[in-house]
Amino acid sequence: MLTPAYAAFKVNEPLKPHNITRRETGPNDVKIDIHFCGVCHSDLHQVRDEWGGSTFPMVPGHEIVGVVSEVGKGVKNFKVGDKVGVGCLVNSCQHCRSCDEGLEQYCSNGFVGTYNGIDKDGTPTYGGYSTMVVVDENFVLKIPANLPLDAAAPLLCAGITTYSPLRHWKAGKNTKVAVMGLGGLGHMAVKLANAMGSHVTILSSSEKKRADGERLGAHDFLVLKTEEDFAKHANRFDLIINTVSAPLDMNSHVSLLNRDGTMVLLGAPPKPHELPAMSLIFGRRTVAGSLIGGIKETQEMLDFCGEHNIVSDIETIPMNQINEAYERMLKGDVKYRFVIDLGSLKK
Ligand code: NAP
Ligand code: ZN
User: Fold this and answer.
1) CATH number of this structure's domain 2-157+312-346
2) Cα of 43 to ligand 2 centre, how many Å?
């Protein structure tokens, strides 16, 4: 089915209107009328081919929310009119160890990404910068009734990507959590860690967001620049959630970890980090990584957000402002997630 979308046709070229073909609704498929789609920094990395392997034309967008408009005959869990979401995954092998454990993002046979991926039928996948999508029901999430659709969209990536490591590394009442980078992921990490009862500190690159940090629920806000700054806060945190999209001084930041503390890398800079062994050896510290979250945990996160009334702080834009939004995201000028109103593409 021909579907209006916005696509990047080449590396570093502005996105333009495009029509894509979506498959007909199969027996296990849910057809979704897309209302909103969040804009993730990963969209920008991939449009610019900063991770390598990007394919064009590319229709980005993996923070999709909308309303079910059709279901296949075999669909059990969804009906027309349901408020639903789709995140970064639209399929996986569904039989490896990770898939069996509900960790489809670590599928040994490779999950199918919502965009810039190859679907099981061999066709390219196209994301949420479009008006409609057809997805296997196993990869569709339910949006809690009390959450507004627009501000819930970023939960599908920024929300789950921060929720999953907070749960895995057991953030709770006695945990001192630091969040590096107050952007889309960072501001969700602050809200979620706060709701889990942790003591939350923001590590930001400037003073500009201090007032926002406090409003979002952080207990402390630090801008660390000099050796003395870092020394003052050494051995302080149990868990550092690093959402920064550029490489930075790992040695100094790791020194902020307590003994046995962990820094989880969520930000995926195009260039490698430099990490001296000594900064881990002294203090038995760990640097780890974490990729989005599985379907079961994504639903758990959405339900948690429903219970705690947590959504993203958003700036809504029409589809034709996406290129300006990318430029602003590069400058850190977004509070705290752009969300595209796909109604603007339906007119
Ligand atoms: P974002 O909204 O652009 O936020 C990134 C934040 O990092 C900025 O707001 C800024 O915060 C800080 N920052 C950026 N450049 C910096 C620099 N050169 N030096 C110091 N601080 C800098 O991006 P996002 O959407 O949250 O995504 C963040 C990263 O996570 C991206 O690399 C993205 O690809 C990745 N990601 C990973 C996963 C995963 O599964 N692991 C999932 C989604 C996204 P301050 O202004 O506070 O300094
Ligand atoms: Zn994302």
Assistant:
1) 3.90.180.10
2) 7
Percent of the chain whose pLDDT exceeds 90: 98
Q: Is the pLDDT of residue 347 over 80?
A: no
Degrees, nearest 5: CA angle 219-40-18: 160
Helix (H, G, I), strand (E, B) or coil at 140: coil
Tokens linked to 333: 């000028």
Q: From the CA of 161, which ligand is nearest?
A: 1
How far is ligand 2, taken at its centre, from the CA of residue 231, in Å? 33
Top mutation candidate among 155, 185, 206 for ligand 1, by most atoms within 8 Å of CB: 185
pLDDT at position 152 over 80: yes
Cα(88) to centroid(ligand 2), Å: 7
Cα–Cα distance for residue pair 315/143, rounded to 1 Å: 20
Q: Which band of pLDDT confidence, cut at 50, 70 and 90, is reported for residue 290? A: very high
Ligand 1, CB cutoff 6 Å, lining residues? 40-42, 45, 157, 161, 181-186, 204-205, 209, 243-246, 248, 266-268, 290-292, 329, 332
| Residue 106 near residue 98, CB atoms below 8 Å | yes
Per-residue pLDDT averaged across 56-68, rounded? 98
Would you kindly state where each structural domain of the chain is located, as residue ranges? 2-157+312-346, 159-289
Decide if 341 contacts 124 (C-beta within 8 A): no
d(CA 297, CA 164): 7
Dist. CA 205 → ligand 1 center (Å): 11
Q: What is the pLDDT of residues 254-279, one digit of tens each?
A: 999 999 999 999 999 989 999 999 99
Of the candidates 33, 37, 35, 90, which has an alpha carbon nearest to the alpha carbon of residue 63? 37
Which of 168, 245, 331 maximizes ligand 1 atoms within 8 Å of its Cβ, making it the mutation to test the pocket? 245
Q: Which fold has domain 159-289?
A: Rossmann fold (3.40.50)
Q: Is the pLDDT of residue 70 over 90?
A: yes
Q: Are 159 and 183 in contact (CB under 8 A)?
A: no
